[in-house]
Amino acid sequence: MKSTILIIEDNKQNMYMLSYLLENNGYNVLKAYNGARGLKIAHEKHPEIILIDIQLPDMDGYEICIKLRHNGLPKNTTIIAVTSYAMGGDKEKAIEAGADGYIEKPINPETFVSQMEKIHNTR
Prior knowledge:
Elements: E1 4-8, H1 12-24, E2 28-32, H2 35-45, E3 49-52, H3 61-70, E4 78-83, H4 90-97, E5 101-104, H5 112-121
């Protein structure tokens, strides 16, 4: 069995696509549709990888990254921002907040899993 992945994403279509791709590649997927729920699941289940959308209704992904990194999450957890924010400096801001990598939306279904695995395996 491959790693457990937590997806924190408020868009149902994006959640469906990410879950589908990951489950078809043997991953166990946990889902949260807002930041507060995502933080709770992360601390209860300790997933190996967390995929975070930056634009969420209750708190942004940067804030979630900071909270995850400073509130007892295992150090070896990989956090990846998956977002349509593609302005100059956004990737750097995500990394500063605690993300290990950054994947832009719209994602490419053909390459998404390998992109994610590359970030996870090189951290």
